[in-house]
C-alpha cells in the first residue's frame, strides 16, 4: 500500500474509526477496556505511524475524530477515556509535525448519536444480565434502568445533521490555514466544555452530578 502511494503522493489521513458503549466503571470487564483502547486509541496511532513517512514527504494533513466527551463523562467513561487520550496524542504530534509542514487537526463533535448510530439504544435487562455478582450486590435493577433511561434520552437528543461534522473534516483537509481543533456542537454543549475547562473540578462535578440526578 505504501509503495503505491509513494508514486502517486499522499495528502490526507482521517482517523475516524471508533466504538462506544455505556456503563459505570465496575460494570465493564477488563476485556472491554482493552478492546476500546485498541480500536479508539491504538488503531488511530497504528494508522498514523504507518503513513507518517508519506505525510511528512508531501506535507499533508492528519485529522483525528475526538469528541466533546473528552472533557467530561455522563455514563460512558470508557469512551471519554479513549478520546481524552487521542487529544493528548494529537497535541504531541501537532507540535512535532510543524517543522515538516504537516498539519494535525482534531474534530470534536457534540452529540451526533442519531447521525452516526455509534451507540444503539440500551437495554437495562441486557446490562443487568452481564453484571458480575459483585456488582449486582452493590446495584439493583431499578438503578440500572434509571441510568439506561437517562442515557437513552441523551441518544434521542442527538443531532441528525452529520454533514456539519463532515464539513469540518473537509475544512481541516483543504483549508490553507486549518484549525487545530474544530468543535462542532450545540451551544449548551460548548458551555459545558467551557465550564469543565476553566472552572475548578468541584464545580464541574457538581454540574454533572446534578445532571445525573435528573
UniProtKB/TrEMBL annotation:
The keyword Transmembrane helix applies. It comes from the Eukaryota. Keywords: Membrane, Transmembrane, Transmembrane helix. Pfam families: adh_short. The chain crosses the membrane at residues 62-79, 191-212. The keyword Membrane applies. Belongs to the short-chain dehydrogenases/reductases (SDR) family. This is BDH protein. It comes from Certhia familiaris (Eurasian treecreeper).
